[in-house]
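hiii so um. not sure if this is the right channel but i have a protein structure encoded as tokens and i wanna go backwards to a sequence. like what aa goes where. can anyone help
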């Protein structure tokens, strides 16, 4: 006679050669997608245009903006409407893709203010130099004294005029801290670190 009785969280079976316990979850939970700062999400094709969002993340404790195609304005990634998350969605036309590689390069751009003190990045959300995420057809944009660039990922399509397949590649997986160093007449150098 077995001394083991069925209980909460396990099952068992017994026979002439012993018994076994089954402790696996009989009702496994659905695996949730991993979402991290600056993840390119909700990529879709609507009327031959690719739309995407970027999960909220910070650059030097500032929430970057994304060009929202609905409002045609730069909107912070963590926008809420009536207390509910309402992230901006950028829409890409064929001109946003490199015609050879059929790739759009999703880049974080941040600049310095137009007047002293020249802190980096610009903290004025109404300024064009405030941190923003842009989707463009250039794989590398050289840093300047005004702007620093960091590619956070790419969106590739099978055809830039009538896309049907989209492939996302992610490079940045966390919030960031950046520094700008300018020495004499040399072009400013930007250093990026995941936090």
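sure thing!! here u go:
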């Amino acid at each position: 006679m077995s001394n083991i009785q069925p209980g909460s969280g396990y099952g068992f079976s017994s026979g002439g050669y012993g018994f076994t316990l089954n402790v696996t979850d009989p009702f496994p939970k659905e695996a949730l997608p991993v979402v991290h700062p600056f993840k390119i999400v909700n990529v879709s094709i609507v009327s031959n245009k690719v739309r995407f969002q970027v999960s909220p993340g910070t650059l030097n404790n500032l929430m970057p903006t994304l060009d929202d195609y609905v409002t045609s304005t730069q909107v912070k990634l963590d926008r809420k409407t009536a207390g509910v998350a309402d992230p901006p969605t950028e829409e890409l036309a064929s001109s946003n893709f490199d015609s050879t590689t059929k790739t759009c390069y999703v880049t974080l751009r941040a600049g310095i203010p137009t007047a002293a003190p020249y802190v980096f990045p610009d903290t004025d959300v109404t300024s064009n130099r405030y941190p923003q995420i842009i989707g463009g057809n250039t794989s590398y944009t050289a840093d300047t004294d005004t702007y620093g660039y960091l590619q956070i990922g790419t969106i590739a399509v099978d055809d830039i005029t009538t896309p049907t397949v989209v492939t996302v590649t992610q490079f940045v997986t966390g919030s960031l801290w950046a520094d700008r160093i300018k020495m004499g007449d040399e072009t400013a150098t930007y250093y990026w670190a995941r936090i």
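oh and Residues 11-194 form one domain.
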